Automatic annotation (TrEMBL):
Ranges for domain Lon proteolytic: 590-771
UniProtKB keywords: ATP-binding, Cytoplasm, Hydrolase, Nucleotide-binding, Protease, Serine protease, Stress response
Assigned GO CC terms: cytoplasm
Subunit structure and binding partners: Homohexamer. Organized in a ring with a central cavity.
GO molecular function: ATP binding; ATP hydrolysis activity; ATP-dependent peptidase activity; sequence-specific DNA binding; serine-type endopeptidase activity
Classification via NCBIfam families: lon
Enzyme Commission numbers on file: 3.4.21.53
Name used for this protein in its record: Lon protease
Domain of life: Bacteria
Main location: cytoplasm
Active site as annotated: S677, K720
Catalytic function, reaction form: Hydrolysis of proteins in presence of ATP
Biological process per Gene Ontology, one example term: cellular response to heat
Length: 796
């Protein structure tokens, strides 16, 4: 280095991470404020100083934060990007030493002095340079080709060292060391050491690649990089663990697994760590362990023990349903007193629209448990419930296990919706798959086919819903605590409409709570004249239609019209909802002898029916129509036999069949009908026809009748009585042994009806027939199922 060094001022571009050596052309990205100001100030051909920062994280470096030696660089190109950053293409030249900062803003300028090479012409330098060329020619690897090409040119020893240093894959501190070494001999030795290390690394890589190739087949060449990593870890003596597997292992360790499950998990984890990630079994094993890790083996929700809070929540969400609410409170009381967490299994059975599904959600909210719903309607494969075995490709857990994963706790409220609509297909019976789940003595070891491990389901509160219990197998029904919901009375519907349905429908139609005024009489007419159902779903639709009509009326108002509430009275319903759909047909149908009003049970609730009879000239034949089942046909034959054998007692000509035929018809012929409870009604209709005495138009009846005239009990009394009340009936004839079933009928309905409890048909005839005698004529007695869907009525 000469003694006379003259300092020159240059713009300074500090580099965060890169290191530039003399004799190269590089593209530098520029993004910091001061560096962008430098880019704006320089032009093509200008000379700047490029130096490296000591710490890349320093945002605004001073001279002390920059290495003391940099390189002069000539600007070849300046480019700006749309995002505000810039790029400089520079050609680096000789080294310079940084003396002091002469300007800090808007960009840095420093005074720099030359840092010339030392011992560049020494013989040792020339010998080292030639030896380094030979070494580079022997180098093979990722950078070997570019290095051989670079040293093919006849370069001075100093330039050779810088060129090789720039082409080697060196770490940042090694590049800085090369830049800071101004003695050419030392620089050549330093670069030679780096070349030897690169050569050794290349040889090691070749050895590792060779080992990998021996272990891999041709179909696994796409995973050579993963195998190379495994070989490197083997050389270093490190364990081959994947980060994902480590996380999974940690998650499983935190899951507090039962001992039996922990043994299986340990075995599967050991197997997983030995599998190649590209092996098909790797993902199968990992997915299996992830499923186990996601299940709530020991996590429980904090269940409230405040019975008043639970009762208030249930009352706020649903009006009525006292039996169900009482059963929930009983369950919560047992949990509170015992301190345990045993689950329960409730089956809410009843017609559509009575709130079975929404009641399950209310139970979860009231008890502060997570709520999961499983729709079982139409499921016909047992594997959908209990999962597929892992031997099948694409095997997954069943719906029960997935619901528990979603719930995240061991004690959720699980709603099994429409369980009576499970169907049986070639994949087995899904209903049979529920037998273990819904058995309190077995579900603590519920086993899914996918898991093949026992999972405790005993703390789950199961709520099962069904419309028709007769479609469920006896073993499944035996496991359920059945709570029947037979429908609402008109008064209950009125309160539900006022408190729940109407506010919701107004909100759905963008109407405020004060936008409509509908009086109770109008609501009663909607309930009786536009719906005839056990639940309130159709009532909700009618109120929604009313809301839409009002919304149209409000939307058509002119801006200057006052925003008054729309008043809806009973006489306005035809305008909003159209013509009435249902009428009281009892008086009209029973106006002539031979027609009796019966009560039927259907899956959608109770209903009334009319059985009509007629006689004509003939030879004593009996014709039965109306798509009746065998049981109902037998009731008709028994009724005819009873009337003939007791003709004198009931005032009928004993020889009425000598020259006449009898026809019994039950209309709604497209709907199949069966069951024994129409027996009393058929007896009454035949007696009315043959005696000429009309059946009272305010009376309906149900019951099975024997050949001797005994009246036997039947089921569905509550649903049938509610149907009679909806139809305007005021007198109901029931079997005497059904008297205890009247306790289930709401008091407000019982108080409006007169009940006649009969043990013999003579009592029925006395209560049902009028005293007057009508002239004998051909009459029809009709059993019409009003508001009945495609479901078959069961007269039992």
């Amino acid at each position: 280095m000469t003694d006379n060094k003259q300092a020159t001022d240059y713009p300074l571009l500090p580099l965060r991470r890169g290191v530039l050596l003399p004799g190269s052309v590089s593209t530098l990205p520029v993004g910091r404020t001061r560096s962008l100001a430098l880019v704006d100030a320089v032009s093509v051909g200008d000379i700047i100083v490029v130096a490296s920062q000591r710490e890349p994280e320093t945002e605004t470096p001073t001279l002390a934060d920059i290495h003391p030696i940099g390189v002069l660089a000539k600007v070849h190109r300046v480019g700006r990007s749309n995002d505000g950053s810039a790029r400089l293409v520079v050609e680096t030249r000789e080294r310079v030493g940084l003396e002091q900062v002469v300007q800090s803003s808007p960009y840095m300028r420093v005074s720099a002095i030359p840092a010339p090479d030392q011992n560049g012409d020494a013989t040792e330098a020339k010998v080292l340079a030639e030896s380094l060329r030979e070494h580079v020619r022997e180098l093979a690897g990722d950078a070997g080709g570019s290095l051989v090409e670079a040293v093919a040119k006849r370069l001075e020893p100093s330039a050779l060292a810088d060129t090789i240093g720039a082409h080697l894959p060196l770490e940042r501190h090694a590049e800085v060391e090369v830049l800071m070494t101004v003695d050419v001999v030392e620089r050549l030795r330093l670069v030679a050491r780096f070349v030897n290390e690169a050569n050794e690394m290349h040889a090691m890589r070749q050895k590792i690649d060779e080992e990998v190739r021996k272990r891999l087949g041709k179909h696994q060449r796409d995973v050579i990089l993963r195998e190379r990593m495994k070989a490197i870890q083997s050389e270093l003596g490190e364990a081959d663990e994947s980060g994902e597997v480590d996380k999974l292992e940690t998650k499983l360790a935190e899951a507090e697994l039962p001992e039996e499950v922990q043994k299986v998990v340990d075995r599967e984890l050991k197997r997983l760590t030995k599998l190649n990630p590209a092996h098909p079994e790797f993902n199968v094993a990992r997915t299996y362990l992830e499923t186990i890790a996601d299940l709530p083996w020991s996590t429980r929700a904090e269940v409230t023990d405040d019975l008043d809070e639970v009762a208030a929540q249930l009352d706020a969400d649903h009006y009525g349903l006292d039996d169900v609410k009482e059963r929930i409170l009983e369950h919560m009381a047992v949990l509170k007193l015992s301190g345990g967490s045993k689950g329960t299994i409730l089956c809410l059975a009843g017609p559509p629209g009575v709130g079975k599904t929404s009641l399950g959600r209310s139970i979860a909210e009231a008890t502060h448990r997570p709520f999961v719903r499983i729709a079982l309607g139409g499921v016909r494969d047992e594997a959908e419930v209990r999962g597929h075995r892992r031997t099948y490709v694409g095997a997954i857990p069943g719906r029960i296990v997935n619901a528990m994963r979603k719930a995240g706790v061991k004690n959720p409220v699980m709603l099994l919706d429409e369980v009576d609509k499970l169907s049986q297909g070639w994949g087995g019976s899904p209903e049979a798959a529920l037998l273990e789940l819904l058995d309190p003595e077995q579900n603590h070891t519920f086993t899914d086919h996918y898991l093949e491990l026992p999972f405790d389901m005993s703390e789950v509160m199961f709520v099962v819903t069904a419309n028709d219990l007769s479609k469920m197998s006896p073993p499944l029904r035996d496991r359920l605590e059945i709570v029947e919901i037979n429908g609402y009375t008109p008064e209950e519907k009125l309160k539900i409409a006022r408190g729940h349905l109407l506010p919701r429908k107004l909100e759905e139609n963008a109407l405020g709570p004060d936008a409509v005024e509908i009086d109770d009489l109008a609501l009663r007419h909607v309930i009786t004249d536009y719906t005839r159902e056990a639940g309130v779903r159709q009532l909700g639709r009618e109120l929604g239609k009313l809301g839409r009509s009002v919304a149209l009326q409000v939307a058509r108002r002119k801006p200057d019209e006052p925003a008054e509430a729309v008043h809806v009275a009973a006489e306005d319903l035809d305008e909003y909802l159209g013509k009435r759909r249902f009428f009281n047909e009892v008086a009209e149908r029973t106006a002539v002898p031979g027609v009796a009003t019966g009560l039927a049970w259907t899956p959608v609730g109770g209903d009334i029916l009319f059985i009509e009879t007629s006689q004509m000239r003939g030879k004593g034949g009996l014709k039965i129509t109306g798509q009746l089942g065998d049981v109902m046909k037998e009731s008709a034959h028994a009724a005819l036999t009873y009337v003939r054998s007791n003709a004198d007692a009931i005032g009928v000509d004993p020889n009425f069949l000598e020259d006449r035929d009898i026809h019994i018809h039950v209309p709604a012929g497209a709907v199949p009908k069966d069951g024994p409870s129409a027996g009393v009604t058929i007896f009454t209709a035949l007696t009315s026809l043959l005696s000429g005495r009309r059946v009272r138009n305010d009376t309906a009846m149900t019951g099975e009748c024997t050949l001797r005239g005994r009246v036997l009990p039947v089921g569905g009394i509550k649903a049938k009585v509610l149907a009679a009340h909806r139809a305007g009936i005021t007198r109901v004839i029931l079997p005497h042994r059904n008297a205890r079933d009247l306790e289930e009928v709401p008091e407000e309905v019982r108080s409006q009806l007169e009940f006649i409890l009969a043990e013999d048909m003579s009592e029925v005839i006395e209560a049902a027939l009028e005293d007057g005698h009508e002239p004998e004529q051909s009459q029809l007695g009709l059993t019409v199922l009003t508001d009945v869907d495609s479901s078959s009525p069961t007269l039992s």
